UniProtKB/TrEMBL annotation:
The keyword NAD does not apply. It holds the Pfam family TonB_2. It is found in: Membrane. Its main location: membrane. Coiled coil: none annotated. Residues 70-105, 120-211 have a biased composition (Basic and acidic residues). It comes from Halopseudomonas yangmingensis. This is Colicin import membrane protein. It is a single-pass membrane protein. It comes from the Bacteria. GO terms for molecular function: toxin transmembrane transporter activity.
Amino acid sequence: MNRRDAPPPPGNSLGGPLLKSIGLHLVVILMLFVSFTSAPEFEPARPIVQATLVQLNAQSPATTPTDQRIAGEAERTAAKRHEAEELAKQRQQQEAERKAAEQKVAEQAAQQREQAAAAEVRKKAEEQKKAEEQKKAEEQRKANAEAARLKAAEEAKRKAEEDAKRKAAEESKRKAEEEAKRKAAEEARRKAAEDAKRKAAEDAQRKAQEDARARALAELLADETQYQRAPAEQFGEQVAASYDDLIRRYVSEQWRRPPTARNGMVVRVRISMLPTGQITDVVVVRSSGDAGFDQSAVQAVRNVGRIPEFQQLSRDDPAAFNRLYRQRELVFKPEDLDF
């Protein structure tokens, strides 16, 4: 027989297996106790168990069904513990992920709240700014409207004042023009009346002078006896004096005395005349020393044009006319021309 097949000694037939079984049970109980008491936080006891098992196996390499059962239970326990550890790790990881997700959600919510709060602040600020801008725009609009109203009122007032001034000036001008027209008309009437009166007086005087000269000439011509007795020189002087006055009267009516004329000036002119009384020429024989005065006298004689009375003289006494008035020199002085 081999030693392995030999029966064990009597004293040790139950001691070895029993001790092994008790040791295994104690290990299993200890492992179960540790597993159930601190499942979330497993202690690394596996090396101890393995060491014990190795020691036990080293002490007794022989196994029994009981030992196998105990070993299977230990393995199952170890598997359960490992599964519990994995589950705990998963739970811890899930819890960590949940907490991280909750933290992230919380942070996102806080960020959203902050963003919403900031947006609300911006919105309120924008609304306030918009309200202030609208208020300012409304105030500006009212100010512009008031300024426009005041400007329009001022412009209307200014225009009304200008219109009033213009109308007053026009009315004053109209009244002044009417007054000037009235005065001018009155002056024209007065002057016309004076001119008519003066002309009537001049006409009456001229007619009286003409009548007197005509009567004197008629008397001289009709009084043949006296005409025959009177010397020719005396008759010529009388007739010449009468007709010289007539020429001066005609010239005085046409003369417009120049501003340079003054008393003491004397101009002698030669007048040429036809028997019809038409003046054909007038020249200055002796100047007064003032060309303007001389020319005014010449122009006045030319403006007379014709003296009808000389036509009658030339008919009644052609010899006297030819001798005295074909060419006649006369002297003109400013003081002698106020007829």
